[in-house]
Amino acid sequence: MTDVPLKLFNSLTRSLEVFEPVHPGEARVYTCGPTVYNYPHIGNMRAYVFADVLGRTLSWKGYKLTHVINITDVGHLTDDADAGEDKMEKMAAEKAQSIWDIAEHYKQAYWADVKALNIRQPAQWTVATDYVPQMIEFAKGIADKHCYELESGLYFDVSTVADYGRLARANTEEGEGRIEAVEGKRNAADFAIWRKTPPGETRQMEWDSPWGKGAPGWHLECSVMSGEVLGFPFDIHTGGIDHREIHHPNEIAQNQAHCCTNGLDDPRNSGARIWMHNNFLVERSGKMSKSSGEFLRLQLLIDKGYHPLAYRLMCLQAHYRSELEFSWEGLGAALTRLKRMVMAFAKWREKLPDTQIPGDSWERERVTRDLVARFDAAIANDLNTAEGLTVLEEMLALKKVAPECIVTAAAKMDSVLGLGLGNMERADLRIRPKSASITEAEIEAALARRKEARAAKDFATSDAIRDELAAQGVEVMDGDPLGWEWKL
Ligand SMILES: Nc1ncnc2c1ncn2[C@@H]1O[C@H](COP(=O)(O)OP(=O)(O)OP(=O)(O)O)[C@@H](O)[C@H]1O
Ligand SMILES: [Zn+2]
């Protein structure tokens, strides 16, 4: 069944590669986590839905997965390169709160979204500020050969490693034109691995180091946390497509320097074998961003009555390497599709015999075996979740198949998709929008009265109830094929 080799798109080579684990039978994955200076927008969450599907796929393929996601609570500047202020310091100043409080609040908010989207818990969440001593050690190890000191910090000289910027395929001479000119920098693309606190200033977060009081650079953080927990080289490093341009090339440069110093002599040792990137969720007006004022949070979707897993499904409908445009209509369509799947699955579940069903029951029938194999081939082809979904739907639409075969095969497919079909009822998908003035219980009570009136052929009362509900924004849907009866 799981014998189709897993192929993944490696951004380093810009090609599909068969996954060959560094450690037989294992898969070690590092995902760049959020900078917890603000709520994540749903675009950010696309990056974690993608990483989650990757992890689930590796588990499906039988690898023992170790997944690490970090929490950045220091060092990420308002520009990915060396320009601007520390995002955390800036927000703390704006809110007149301590950075630690800011970090805690937004980390919890992020975790709430992770849970709502059925993103599995990684083996470890690494928090940047817990690893500062290791970051200093790492920097000390590469400082002599690869770095130089300026007034503002310790800088990495990108000309000291072979083939810098190959991930971005950027022209390093121009440094993409985004890198702030710092007096004394040897190459435009050189970056700070340690930022000194300017004389006369105190930062809320600062540590002593051989280069003076200061804070680690954002790129250093991810090199250190990934190497510490997973060991170089590990299998897969993931992040959003923007990280392909600056953050990950800089991580790679540091990893190369570190690995060479530590006897892993290949000058192109990038730290991770495969680098994978999800494309952006965009709005009609452009890339979604929380730096630009109003932004879409998962909670806003819920407040408007959309189940968060409809957003997960929306992500799965697109390939992770394609841009995905967000629209409310698209989200509504995803919710309807999810409802259909949940209801179809529930129908099969109702038909199950009372006995305990073995998880491998799907292997008994040819049709479910074939469909699981097709699902496997889709997912093994660089995570083609869109096709995986249609295979699942095709199976749920079958007739005259033993229900235990369908239910176990669907549960198996859902272990990759993560839609939670097994523990959802259609009523769970009906969320009352925050703006609604009427409660679900009130709606249900009104509908029960209306049903009685109709049974008694009292159509005047029945119509009056419908009109009352309409006045409160509730649309009664007689004969709704999905059996939803009402919507707000
Ligand atoms: N619109 C988007 N669609 C998909 N992924 C995104 C989008 N914007 C950011 N990401 C990814 O989300 C993850 C978390 O990013 P992070 O917390 O650093 O947010 P950010 O870069 O400060 O956000 P923004 O720049 O949108 O304000 C990263 O992997 C990043 O590449
Ligand atoms: Zn990172």
Structure overview:
This protein is of the alpha/beta class and 488 residues long. It has helices at residues 42-60, 87-95, 99-116, 132-146, 218-230, 247-261, 298-303, 308-317, 328-350, 366-380, 385-396, 403-417, 440-455, 459-471, and strands at residues 7-10, 15-18, 26-31, 64-71, 124-127, 147-150, 153-156, 191-196, 214-216, 234-240, 272-278, 281-283, 286-287, 324-325, 475-476, 486-487. The strands form 5 sheets. The protein has a 5-stranded parallel β-sheet, with helices on both faces. A 4-stranded antiparallel β-sheet has the order 6-7-8-9. Helix 4 (132-146) packs across helix 6 and helix 11 (385-396) runs antiparallel to helix 12. The radius of gyration is 26 Å and the shape is globular. Bound molecules: adenosine-5'-triphosphate (ATP) and zinc ion. Adenosine-5'-triphosphate is lined by residues 32, 34-35, 43-44, 46-47, 239-240, 242-243, 278, 280-281, 287-291.
Which strands sit side by side, in order, in the main sheet?
5-4-3-10-11
Q: How does the major sheet shape up?
A: 5 strands, parallel
Helix segment count?
14
Q: In oligomeric terms, what are we looking at?
A: single chain
Structural class, by secondary structure, is alpha/beta
Cα-to-Cα separation, first versus last residue:
44 Å
Shape by Cα distribution:
globular
Bound molecules: adenosine-5'-triphosphate, zinc ion
Motif ('HIGH' region): 34-44
EC number: 6.1.1.16
Main location: cytoplasm
Domain tRNA synthetases class I catalytic: 19-333
